[in-house]
Design goal:
This is DNA repair protein RadA. Keywords: ATP-binding, DNA damage, DNA repair, DNA-binding, Hydrolase, Metal-binding, Nucleotide-binding, Stress response, Zinc, Zinc-finger. Belongs to the RecA family. RadA subfamily. The protein has eleven helices and 23 strands. It is α/β, with parallel strands linked by helices and about 450 residues long. The chain has three domains: about 40 residues; about 210 residues, 3-Layer(aba) Sandwich (Rossmann fold); about 170 residues, Ribosomal Protein S5, domain 2 (2-Layer Sandwich), CATH 3.30.230. A nine-stranded mixed β-sheet has the order 8-7-9-10-6-11-12-13-14, sandwiched between helices. The model has no long low-confidence stretch (mean pLDDT about 90).
């Protein structure tokens, strides 16, 4: 006999417990614990004959798992070359970040490729918008294609019926939290429904080798909404990030069973749609004159991808009792630490001035390698001395003022040389193992004073 037990689930994160509690022990939410469906625990599992016999690994056909291009190079980069047949990809992001726009562009390009290769159509199912609303967006971004089929549906069994009738080559579902199943209790988006819908949908598409891209909502903390088991069920989890007031969008792979998780895709979201950016340097570098004080360029690493980032600083005298320290795109605590180091080691006094530090183009960086460029920008603004023309700097600053070694220096130098920079300040530690890069002069610096002496132009007379 199977024993019946009662389980309780957190509606915020999916945490399970055998008894009711007032606060979730995982995410800390109050009043989110509710009783779930009874689960049967079998005490004597029975053996079942397998449908297919096990075979030697050398004889397994690996061609069915080869990635196929989605038509969007930046998405292919993040996925590891393309989407694998039968793969289930979860794309999560904040409302308005551009998830639906990106996937509609992917659907249109995939439909054109499918028609040219004789494959089935692309099926785009929306549980949030009508087909007319989706068409209006497709007209705006130029994503109309006769091999792209639209359906507004939130009933899982009907969606599976669409799959059986159309036999698509790609399924896009926007979003998984809006779909419900008649066989499962609870409202759409709840823990029980999301778990059941995802499991049934994965079973249906895996048997057909049908790749699926699911759109997922996020919570106010930026995590994927629904139970944590949702991330374990799918094959790939991608996070779509970006400031809604800026054009730049970044796509990161948080989990990827078929490729790396350290690749980043860059997109430009504008009025006419979304465009991949193989070279996003134009968004991060300003065309300001090289003689303008308070600006310095660094090269950060987003995964394995070098990204040029321009740091700007403004130091202004204030009469207020408490000077301002305002940052945008840079970690506030690291800027406060650098101000303390510059005052203690170099005598750069900012106790009576407001300090504003920002990146260009909405770029965000928390990497310690940006410390040196940030410090040079602040010192340049404070002394009214521009940095030398064509200079790029990267390195972590310690509390004693030393420049610590950082990772990926060779890749940063190669990217800086490609963008036309002529001078690079790098940490002295490990500089002897660097390979010379054509067109750029490398100057190792051991501390902040040496960096200021080599990086800033002479004072005006």
């Amino acid at each position: 006999m199977a024993k019946i037990k009662t389980e309780y689930f957190c509606s915020e994160c999916g945490w399970q417990t055998l008894k009711w509690v007032g606060q979730c022990r995982d995410c800390g939410a109050w009043g989110s614990i509710s009783e779930g469906a009874a689960a049967a625990v079998s005490t004597a599992p029975q053996a079942i004959a397998p449908r297919t016999a096990a075979e030697p690994i050398s004889q397994v056909n690996a061609e069915v798992a080869r990635a196929r291009s989605t038509g969007v190079s930046e998405l292919d980069r993040v996925l590891g070359g393309g989407i694998v047949p039968g793969a289930v990809v979860l794309l999560a992001g904040e409302p308005g970040v551009g998830k639906s726009t990106l996937l509609l562009d992917v659907a249109s390009r995939a439909a054109a490729d499918a028609l040219a290769s004789g494959a089935g159509p692309v099926l785009y199912i929306s549980g949030e918008e009508s087909a007319s609303q989706i068409k209006l967006r497709a007209e705006r971004i130029g994503a109309l294609h006769n091999h792209l089929l639209l359906a507004a549906e939130a009933h899982l069994e009907t969606i599976i019926g669409h799959i059986e009738h159309q036999n698509p080559s790609l399924l896009i579902l926007d979003s998984i939290q809006t779909v419900f199943s008649s066989d499962t209790e609870g409202a759409a988006g709840g823990v029980t429904q999301v778990r059941a819908v995802t499991s049934k949908l994965i079973a249906a598409v895996k048997s057909r080798n049908l790749p699926v891209i699911l759109v997922g909502h996020v919570t106010k903390d930026g995590g994927i909404a629904g139970p944590r088991v949702l991330e374990h069920l799918v094959d790939v989890v991608c996070q779509f990030e970006g400031d809604r007031h800026a054009r730049l969008r970044l796509l990161r792979a948080v989990k990827n069973r078929y490729g790396p998780t350290d690749e980043v895709g860059c997109f430009d979201l504008n009025d006419t749609g979304i465009v991949g950016l193989p070279d996003p340097s134009g968004l991060f570098l300003s065309p300001a004159s090289a003689d303008t004080p308070g600006t310095c360029v660094t090269v950060t690493l987003e995964g394995r991808r070098p990204m040029p980032t321009e740091v700007q600083a403004l130091v202004a005298v204030t009469n207020a009792g408490s000077p301002r320290r305002t940052t945008s795109g840079i970690d506030h605590s690291r800027v406060a630490m650098m101000l303390a180091v510059m005052q203690a080691r170099l005598g750069v006094d900012t106790s009576s001035t407001d300090v504003y530090v920002s990146t260009v183009g909405g770029a965000k960086t928390s990497e310690p390698a940006a410390d040196l460029a940030t410090a040079l920008a602040i010192m340049s603004a404070a002394a009214d001395r521009p940095v030398k023309p064509g200079l790029v700097a990267f390195g972590e600053i310690g509390l004693t003022g030393e420049i610590r070694a950082t990772v990926g220096v060779q890749r940063r130098l190669a990217e800086a040389a490609r963008l036309g920079f002529k001078v690079a300040l790098v940490p002295d530690a490990g500089a002897d193992s660097l390979t010379p890069v054509k067109g750029i002069h490398i100057y190792p610096v051991a501390d902040l004073s040496a960096a200021a002496r080599l990086g800033l132009q002479p004072a005006k007379k």
